[in-house]
Amino acid sequence: MKKTPLYEEHLKLGAKIVEFGGWLMPVQYTNVIDEHIATRTKAGLFDICHMGEFFISGNDAFKLIQGLITNDLSKLSENKAFYTAMCYEHGATIDDLFVYCFNNNKYMLVVNAGNAEKDFAWIKKHSNGLDVDVEDKTASIAKLDIQGPFSEKIIQKLTKYSLSSIERFHFTETGISKTKAIISRTGYTAEDGFEIYFDSAKAAEIWDRILSEGKPFGIKPVGLGARDTLRIEAGYSLYGHELSENITPIEAGIGFIVKTEKDDFVGKDILKKQKENGTGRKIVAFEMLDKGIPRNPYDVMKDNKKIGFVTSGTFSPTFKKGIGLTMVDINEAKENNNISIRIREKDYKARIVHGSFYSYKGR
Fold first, then answer.
1. Residue 155's domain spans which residues?
2. pTM to 2 decimals?
3. Is 254 among the domain residues?
4. pLDDT of res. 127
5. Which parts of the chain are beta strand (E)?
């Protein structure tokens, strides 16, 4: 198992460690509910050093990335970032990722930890014959996420750069605690916050500094458990659940990142057909009406017939009920449709809802 540069810090804090995507990661420090609520009301600090960072530069950097991603890179200007996906020829998803634009000849791709090796090989394969340099800098870059209402006030204590000038999905290259860093106003919780990239050798120092400066604001270190409950409330996809090598972005309900009007990209033909003609299934959100906690991959039932399965489910600390995301037959993907979740061979009443449970609370 791989360890992030903060592994020893997690042990010092009494974290419960689990395997995740080939990495040993903290699942919780105190408990999931406390860490979740701290992020929603104060601030939470996340070790995301396991994520992959690729730098693509050269005269053909734009051409390479534009031909691999579903979103339209021509819409991404300097110091901006966006969410996108890479797909196979048959439309299913290789990975979902973020692209950061420094200029037309330099980009950073941030990919899921468990997919990093596969993603890098895919990108290198398609870079053959192009004037481009593709570098995997995952091992040398640390990534910390701070999320929650007090995020800006806390990080402002570590940098001279005016963070209030960074808009959502924008980033800057600046210094944090005397270390060069990339700071972006992005995140995976639906709260305001920042994702910070810097030299992995400084990981423990900056982790400790953020926790120290954040103490008066009630900051807590947050593990994978609360990271999951936060993103499910927001309706955000997780690779291996809402997205996979068997699920397209259209089926996953994130068609907004698929720009079929742009020039050719891998998977365009299938995705264009799905966007125009629809799909046979779709991921939607649901809430429990009975007391019960849905989990992947519980069956979703209607009139004693299986119509889908739970892709992600949890008990929501914010709404105090079971919630989740489910892949269901397209004819059943209707708001207020009454369904059942089969939990340990017993059916519990639930209802499909429109959109997500928790909308973005940042600026």
1. 2-51+139-233
2. 0.97
3. no
4. 98
5. 2-3, 16-20, 23-28, 44-47, 52-57, 80-87, 93-103, 106-111, 133-136, 141-147, 171-176, 179-184, 193-199, 220-222, 281-288, 299-302, 305-316, 321-329, 338-343, 346-353
